[in-house]
What we know:
By secondary structure, this protein is mainly α. The chain has helices at 16-33, 71-84, 93-111, 117-139, 142-151, 156-163, 169-173, 176-181, 184-189, 195-203; strands at residues 56-61, 64-69. It contains ten helices and two strands.
Amino acid sequence: xxxxxxxxxxxxxxxxxxxxxxxxxxxxxxxxxxxxxxxxxxxxxxxxxxxxxxxxxxxxxxxxxxxxxxxxxxxxxxxxxxxxxxxxxxxxxxxxxxxxxxxxxxxxxxxxxxxxxxxxxxxxxxxxxxxxxxxxxxxxxxxxxxxxxxxxxxxxxxxxxxxxxxxxxxxxxxxxxxxxxxxxxxxxxxxxxxxxxxxxxxxxxx
Length: 206
């Protein structure tokens, strides 16, 4: 016997009362007439602005509707980036950036239809901060931090001061010394693929 695959459908009506009535009617028909099992956890009524469908959600702009990634989709994106850029992985930065590019390229290829310019810009800054944190962690020793900061054109006295700082990795990643040394241009030169630019290029084709 062939078991049918799970099927998902959105039904839009004008009121919450109508939605409840349709839900009851559909469930009765599917389970009573067709002998199919309705997943009660995934079947629910609510505003289309809050529902998640294929990773997307709707939002209202005046009298028009737009589409953007659902918050759960964004949360999963950030969790994957955290895994790739975890300070505990101990991989060469080139490998990390390559893996990051493969993941973000696929994600943007799917979600580029959505309106999310501001969100992508914020995610871009957040990813760069994680990369700076990863590099700072890799330098480890004071001498390595000092030498790398000097190489990246930080004045000797400031390089020594920051090489000896006891501030946490995440805080340092947003500090003056790393945004000045590990600039956006530098990160691009070692392989970071700017997701804002990629999104703009893909989104403009839709």
